[in-house]
Design a protein that fits this description.
Elements: E1 16-24, E2 31-32, E3 43-49, E4 56-57, H1 64-68, H2 79-95, E5 103-107, H3 115-119, E6 124-128, H4 132-141, E7 146-147, H5 153-161, E8 166-172, H6 181-191, E9 192-203, H7 205-210, E10 223-224, H8 227-236, E11 239-247, E12 253-260, H9 270-282, H10 293-314, E13 318-321, H11 325-334, E14 344-345, E15 354-355, E16 362-364, H12 367-372, E17 376-379, H13 385-391, E18 401-404, E19 410-411
Parallel strand pairs: 5-6, 5-8, 6-7, 8-9, 13-14, 13-17, 14-16, 17-18
Antiparallel strand pairs: 1-3, 2-15, 3-4, 4-10, 9-12, 11-12, 15-16, 18-19
Amino acid sequence: MQGQDSCRFCQTKISHSFCDLGLSPLANELIDLKNAEKQETLYPLHARVCSKCFLVQLPELENPEVIFSNYVYFSSYSKSWLEHAEQYSEKVISRFSLNENSRVVEIASNDGYLLKNFKKRGMKVLGIEPAGNVATVAMSSAGVPTLIRFFGTELADELVQSQNHADLLIGNNVLAHVPNINDFVDGMKRVLSKNGVITMEFPHLLNLIEKRQFDTIYHEHFSYLSFLTVQQIFAAHGLKLFDVEELPTHGGSLRIFGTHADCKTHQEQPGVANLLKKEAAYGLGKIETYLSFQKEAEAVREGLVNFLQKCKREGKRVAGYGAPAKGNTLLNFSKVKTDLLPYTVDISPYKQNKFLPGVRIPVFAPEKIQAEKPDFVLLLPWNIKNEIVTQMSFIREWGGKFVVPLPTLEIF
């Protein structure tokens, strides 16, 4: 695939850099031990920003079928995410009076972690998930009917023809993952029932900038979204955003509520104007706000490398926790390899006994930490810090400490 020099939403020519992280492999392409000598393809990881609509974006350098068709992320391995999904389900069922006659469709439904909550309430559910290995788990373990497809206008029209309109259309952490965002949002409008509701969750660009979360930039995230920009995208396709919530998930996310522009059932809530005002005050409607982020990423890199080098000089042992995509961005940009971080661990068996891409740091089961007793544990999935600290509280038995790399390196 080739990169683009115009905005994927509004087609304005892009001339401004947001954050250049150099060359990097695909962040979720962990390496099997048997392929340890295989060289990955490295791609430019350079996010740019549109001066008209302020969409921060990466060009499409690799086909989504390559990135998403066999996926290593399974939602059900995060206890906090499962709790988040259950709380959301109860909330929207009550708020929008969903019942056994309601049809709930989720785009990027992963392993059925969310739709199973609606299914057990007797509702008609349908998952759409392009990763066949993950979709198979959703069908076999969660009993959630799942189409192994990418979503867009083509699939939306097929669903409409088969009377599969959505009364509730869900997309969690998927809006940022689609290279053709116009086709995707247009598809959502087509499949949404007359008075139906769309809810989507995605990391909030304001938090990314304010909290130096550059590690959430990787090739499967094609877009980095503010409410200001998303409102423009939805409006261009005949959809209005009538409510929005700020969430703590993934380092700070938004949950938007959308419906057809001419729908009278759902009235705009105060949160919409309040968030637009907050973003404007921060400067998300001014190109200058985006142009100083590069130095923030470099400051995080410097803090991490200095800490790891100091530990090495002093004979302190450091292990990693987690093998998330964000960790691979951080480690590759910082050029941290096994001389500074000998290994990491992950609770997911799908990631164990593999190497992180690019830096080739091995991934083991969490028991490795208890056996090795490192002095420090570097938390790569910092967004679930509290969950990990609870799981790994036993490191205090030998005086071990946790380390979070950003927004500034913290030891606790």
